[in-house]
Amino acid sequence: MTLFIKRGRLLCLRQIPIFVTLLLYILIPPVKKNNTSVMVLPQQKYYNKIIRNVVQKIAFKAH
Questions:
Q1: 50: domain range?
Q2: How many whole angstroms separate alpha carbon 47 and alpha carbon 42?
Q3: 35 C-beta neighbours (distance < 10 Å), count
Q4: CB 28 within 8 A of CB 44
Q5: How many domains does the chain have?
Q6: Are 31 and 39 in contact (CB under 8 A)?
Q7: Which domain of life is it from (predicted)?
Q8: What is the CA 51 to chain-centroid distance, rounded?
């Protein structure tokens, strides 16, 4: 059973980048070539920072 749990954790860790990219696509609206693109960029950096922190916490707990 312990091997199964460890494998499950590894699968979860491998799936995190996919999950993060999906989150980014959902959270960040598509950038258009007008004034909104200037507003989206700082927002994107903010989301990237939050998601990076979340991924680090998940990875740390998995160890």
A1: 2-62
A2: 9
A3: 7
A4: yes
A5: 1
A6: no
A7: Bacteria
A8: 5
Q: Residue holding tokens 């499950």?
A: 8
Cβ contacts of 44-47, under 8 Å, gap ≥ 24: 47/23
List the pLDDT tens digit at each of the 63 positions of the chain. Answer: 444 445 555 555 556 677 777 777 666 665 555 555 555 566 677 777 888 888 888 777 765
- First and final CA of the chain: distance in angstroms? 18
- Are 20 and 51 within 8 A, CB to CB? yes
Its pTM surpasses 0.70:
no
Half-sphere CA count of 4, side-chain side, radius 13 A: 1
